[in-house]
């Protein structure tokens, strides 16, 4: 017997954008974020940007409101809800942070579909500022993986899930991601596993640079519609047509109808 664990990356996988970039663009931190990225790793730059936004008077409530305007495709929602309804174990493994991910998932009512979220932890301090910490405290020790950023080795997490003492059954993974950080966990997958890289994104390019390095079955996807079709195919069920119009591959749910939401909608449509 084996137990299937479906692991989703968050940025550019569950959502069709990067949540750090979204906040930077929306709250006036884009130029600073770009500058920071030139001299430090992504997670460190995101932490600094958040501190700077707070210093400029941006509140946690503003960040929360902004996160709730991130569109989520109905195809992604259907894929997640269907897999959960079938009893699959869904988890998130992301280099974003707890606050961003939970805000979006709760907003769309899919938080309960996930058994675990592995990401950089965040908390709110007494001044209601968001404090983000690295998932792996590299000031104490290194995770020892040269492929991954110092704060998170996703491959490490995959190995821990596989080796967890509570896993009496053999774990099979379906791993869905897009980024460079998803390559290390892809290398840890075995022949019984599946990796679903987003086509023409860094993970896809790394995998296709040397497909022989990957033991898992490889299935690429381009947009949320394909992600839904592909995942449900692997789970051998048809997409639930009552939940979403499957013909409308470009449709995205936008949580509000204000001008910001519409601008986002147009941007995302041009991307997929
Ligand atoms: Mg990603
Ligand atoms: Zn790694």
TrEMBL record:
The keyword Hydrolase applies. Keywords: Hydrolase, Magnesium, Metal-binding. Its cofactor is Mg(2+). Mg(2+) binds at residues 9, 11, 178. The active site is at residues 9, 11. It holds the Pfam family Put_Phosphatase. The keyword Cell membrane does not apply. One of its GO terms (molecular function) is metal ion binding. Substrate binds at residues 20, 95. Signal peptide: none annotated. This is Phosphatase. It comes from Rhynchospora tenuis.
């Amino acid at each position: 017997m084996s137990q299937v664990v479906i692991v989703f990356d968050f940025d550019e996988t569950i959502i069709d954008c990067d949540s750090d970039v979204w906040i930077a663009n929306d709250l006036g931190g884009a130029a600073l974020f770009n500058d920071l990225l030139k001299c430090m790793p992504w997670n460190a730059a995101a932490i600094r940007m958040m501190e700077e936004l707070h210093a400029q008077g941006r509140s946690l409530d503003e960040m929360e409101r902004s996160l709730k305007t991130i569109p989520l495709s109905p195809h992604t929602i259907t894929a997640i809800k269907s897999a959960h309804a079938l009893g699959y174990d869904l988890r998130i493994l992301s280099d974003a942070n707890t606050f961003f991910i939970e805000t979006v998932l709760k907003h769309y009512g899919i938080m309960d579909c996930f058994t675990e979220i592995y990401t950089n932890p965040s908390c709110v301090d007494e001044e209601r500022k968001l404090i983000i910490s690295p998932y792996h405290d590299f000031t104490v020790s290194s995770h020892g993986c040269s492929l991954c950023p110092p704060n998170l080795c996703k491959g490490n997490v995959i190995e821990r899930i596989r080796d967890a003492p509570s896993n009496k059954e053999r774990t099979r993974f379906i791993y869905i991601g897009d980024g460079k950080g998803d390559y290390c966990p892809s290398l840890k997958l075995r022949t019984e596993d599946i990796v679903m890289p987003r086509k023409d994104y860094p993970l896809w390019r790394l995998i296709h640079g040397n497909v022989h390095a990957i033991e898992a079955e490889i299935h690429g996807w381009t947009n949320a519609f394909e992600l839904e079709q592909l995942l449900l195919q692997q789970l051998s069920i048809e997409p639930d047509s009552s939940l979403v119009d499957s013909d409308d591959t470009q449709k995205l749910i936008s949580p509000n109808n204000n001008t910001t939401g519409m601008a986002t909608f147009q941007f995302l449509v041009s991307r997929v």
